[in-house]
Each structure stands twice: as structure tokens, then as C-alpha cells.
Prior knowledge:
The chain is of the alpha+beta class. It is built from 3 helices and 4 strands. α1 packs antiparallel against α2.
Amino acid sequence: MIVRIMGEGQLEVAESHLDRLNALDVRLSEALERGDEEAFRNVLRSLLAAVRESGSPLPAEALEPSELILPNEDATAEEVGRLLRDGGLIPG
Length: 92
């Protein structure tokens, strides 16, 4: 699957990593619901790190459709809240 991190580019991530990413996504949603800014920041960093670690960067000139679009590390809780759909950033 192709994942875009806003402002960084695209990575190809094997679907075998989805369970780990979904678990982090749930934690991110819970932190947002609680209004816990510190937990939100920590989990967002962990989610993005997991994508970077498990993904292979695509060349900058590659224009593949992204199946997932994630906010960058500087995104605010309000911005991420607007991106949430179906209970999380990651469908499934």
C-alpha cells in the first residue's frame, strides 16, 4: 500500500504492517477523544516512525495514488481530528 506523509513524500508499506499501524491509530484517536495533547503528540510520532521504519520511500518523481494520507509530525490535534474518518486515520 502507498502511504503519504504530508510534506514528506510517499512510502510503500506492506499490508502485513497494518495491524501495528491500526493499533497506533486507535491510541491516537483515544488521545484525541480525551484531549490529551501529550499522548496525542507521542502516539503521532510513534505512528509516523512506524510507517517510516516499515516503508520503502518512493522516488520524489513517482506519482502514485496514496491509499493512506497521514499528517506530518507538526500537525495539531485539531487538524488531525478533521482528518479522522471511520474512527481513525487508517481504514480497517
